[in-house]
Design brief:
Alpha-Beta Plaits, five-stranded mixed beta sheet, 65% helix, binds guanosine-5'-triphosphate, transmembrane, GGDEF_dom, transmembrane helix, Diguanylate_Cyclase
Length: 380
């Protein structure tokens, strides 16, 4: 029961809360993929007015179709340009979903004027509502899925209601090609919209869980090495464009083997969690800590070298002043770390050169007696 409760709470969080930056970055990749697909499909749509003209359609119909397709292409190109932009626009998935749904509703309104029963019974147009909701899963953001589902319900439900209410009483909405549009078959479609929204929301939730599981270290709850490889290069790229400073600190706990040897591996795990709590609890905005393996961590600071050194020194003193208590009543153990710093772009233009430089300085810190932060090259 508690597992079910936890799942429901997690699901709620994934649907209503803003996902973290990693999730949003993955979603921005999905948005770009979708924008490319939309642009390609919009180009293909030019075939429709052409075919209409070739198959003896009226000039008025062809021109109306052409105007619609041009509008779809202009929008698709605008969304593509925004999705490609370096700056991630957090509102973009909401606006593009609304625009896609708006286009479907526009087509439906035009069809309703010609053949109301045919418009309401057309499976092709209705299926596009379902597709638009379904592809929100690529944005990795439950709020976008709920938004698209609610908007589709509002627009489609509104059109159905308006169509039925605007008919004279006892009129049968019938189309020779599409049959009768009845209240019950329209109600089924509304249920289908709700079901698609819920299924898509669950897919988003599962995708978020998978990303979290593959990118988070189970022992400490910190992001793991995967984040260093996938996210930090983009962070450096953004810093380069903005001319913002970034300093990478490579942190290694001192004599950690002794804790394991003397107190056992489980106490060693608790000591690791204790150290991480000490280093994380006063986290500054924009600061990111990654467990890259064993008792080694990378701390990314949005500061130039001098300020970063002061910050890491403050953390070092904090850990040294907060002893680890293995079990209630047992003797306290003092813990310390050594750190090597490298700043971007002076010490390296990419993650591996920054790591190499920070590692050299970390080794120097260990050599010089541990429990210190080294920010310059020391003679070997
Ligand atoms: N309990 C526990 N121990 C770990 C974990 N990961 C790595 N270790 C231990 O961390 C210790 C690292 O030892 P060393 O690399 O020799 O370094 P150290 O003892 O910290 O010494 P210096 O780094 O030279 O100060 C090893 O005993 C590993 O078994 C973990 O997740 N849990």
């Amino acid at each position: 029961m508690s597992t079910l409760g936890t799942t429901v709470r997690d699901l709620q969080r994934s649907l209503f809360e803003r996902p973290d930056d990693l999730m949003l970055d993955i979603g921005a990749g999905g948005e770009l993929l979708l924008a490319r697909l939309r642009a390609a499909i919009s180009l293909l749509l030019f075939l429709l007015p052409l075919l209409n003209w070739l198959t003896d359609g009226t000039l008025q119909e062809t021109l109306a179709g052409l105007t619609g397709v041009i509008l779809a292409n202009v929008l698709a190109q605008a969304w593509l340009a925004l999705a490609k932009h370096r700056r991630r626009y957090r509102w973009l998935p909401f606006v593009t979903s609304a625009s896609d749904l708006g286009m479907v509703t526009l087509v439906l309104v035009l069809l309703l004027r010609i053949d109301p029963a045919g418009a309401l019974n057309s499976m092709v147009v209705f299926a596009i509502y379902l597709l638009v909701i379904f592809v929100t899963a690529l944005r990795n953001d439950g709020r976008v899925t709920l938004f698209a589902g609610a908007l589709a319900l509002l627009q489609y439900g509104g059109l159905v209601l308006w169509t039925f209410l605007s008919q004279p009483p006892d009129t049968l909405l019938f189309s020779p090609e599409y049959g009768t549009a009845s209240v019950s078959n329209q109600a089924q479609r509304v249920v289908l919209l709700v079901a698609t929204t819920l299924i898509t929301a669950v897919i988003v939730y599962r995708m978020q869980r998978l990303v979290a599981m593959s990118g988070i270290d189970g022992l400490t709850g910190l992001p793991n090495r995967a984040l260093l490889v996938h996210r930090v290069p983009q962070m450096l790229e953004d810093a380069r464009e903005e001319g913002a400073p970034i300093t990478l600190a490579l942190i290694d706990l001192d004599h950690f083997k002794r804790i394991n040897d003397e107190l056992g591996h489980l106490a060693g795990d608790r000591a690791l969690r204790h150290a991480v709590r000490c280093l994380r609890e006063p986290a500054e905005p924009g600061e990111m800590m990654i467990r890259i393996g064993g008792e080694q961590f990378v701390l990314l600071l949005r500061h130039p070298m001098g300020t970063a050194w002061e910050r890491v020194e403050a953390l070092r003193r904090r850990l040294a002043d907060t002893p680890f208590v293995p079990e209630a009543g047992e003797a306290h153990r003092s813990m310390t770390f050594s750190a090597g710093l490298a700043s971007f772009p002076q010490d390296g233009a990419d993650v591996s050169s920054l790591m190499r430089q920070a590692d050299l300085r970390l080794r120097a810190a260990k050599r010089l007696g541990r429990n210190r932060t080294v920010a310059r090259d020391e003679p070997a």
